[in-house]
Amino acid sequence: MEQNSETAAPQTGETRKTIRTFAFASFFNDMGSDMIYPIWPLFVASLGANMAVLGLIDGIGNAIVSISQALSGYISDRTRKRKIFIWLGYLCGAISRFGYALSATWQWLVPFRILDRAGKMRGAPRDAMVADLSIRNNRGGNFGLIRTMDNAGALVGIVFCIAFFPYLGYQNLLLIAAVPSLIAVTLIVMNIREQRLEDAKLFKGISLGHLDGNFRLFVILSAVFSLGTFSYSFLLIFANQFGFKSTTVPVFYLLFTLVATFCSYPFGVLSDRIGRKAVLQISYILWGLVCLAMIFADSTWMVVSAFILFGLHQAGIDTVQKAFVAELGPARYRASALGGFQMIIGLCALPASVVAGLLWDRFGMQAPFILSLGLTVVSAGMLFLVKERP
């Protein structure tokens, strides 16, 4: 008989240690990632790429994220093993940064971008472990803690980038960025102990029959929303073309990450109290406000406000969406459900970024935000039809 994870997940010392280890590993990995993310679009452009190419590279990366999470989630459920996917994912991120440093043209970035984003194979198995170790009343908080540490690491990486990029340049910064991810690998290997929950032979694979209509509706509306949520790179390039200097652009990345850091845990706790759906609606509204600010931007304060709203949006959706999927999907197939969900929205992110780049080049930098605003309204309306489990 399947164990009821809502009542049978005692918060033991070992459980707390596992959650903390995931939090610190996430801190270090994102420290490395966000040493380069603030200058990523500028780096790609420096190798001869236009906006359409930037959208393609980022879109391919997001698609790989989706596929890797789906595969790792399925295999993780099939073998009842999580840990190997987590540390291997962090290792892929570290190796990819060495590759970026060696790239001489934008074409060289593609295979290393694929490797980098394939590192997200860690996502579904890790999230499944967190969900399994949590109960209904603390699941949002646990996901919020990990997301907060994730963003805190990003803050350290961004500050490092802003302070040292003028002296290090692209290549040296990329090489240094690999080190924190190697620390994350060590933390997972040394500190995480997993126990097989059940005989792997009992797992026959997940199918649509295991997913109710409520879960499917949420996947569909999330896919619609993802078709309009293009890469953050477009927001940074928008700020640059609006008139902010290239040396100032990383500060905008710092701004929205700072907001997301301080708001992720509160959003997670809020979702434990008022429900996941309500917080997701708030996050959709916040993204809609980002789009409106970019469409009608006529001052530097509107652009600054857009990045603050974007940080709030990220804090809400990144924290609560995973907890919601973990609860809507069947507990026994949790990693598969999380991975499959990420696959669908990630595959939608590929055309989202490509179309955004094409609209930008052809009709101007407001065009992608107009399309995204419309899709956001549709998604928010569909969310009212989703029923939250008690």
Q: What keywords describe this structure?
A:
390 residues; mainly alpha; Growth Hormone, Chain: A; 15 helices; 77% helix; 0% strand; globular; disordered N terminus
How would you concisely characterize the structure shown here?
It contains 15 helices and no strands.
Explain this structure.
By secondary structure, the protein is mainly alpha-helical. The protein has one domain (13-192, 209-383): MFS general substrate transporter like domains (Growth Hormone, Chain: A). The chain is 77% helix and 0% strand. Helix 1 runs parallel beside helix 7 (139-176), helix 1 (13-36) runs antiparallel to helix 8 and helix 10 (233-242) crosses helix 11. The model is unreliable at 1-9 and 200-209 (pLDDT under 50).
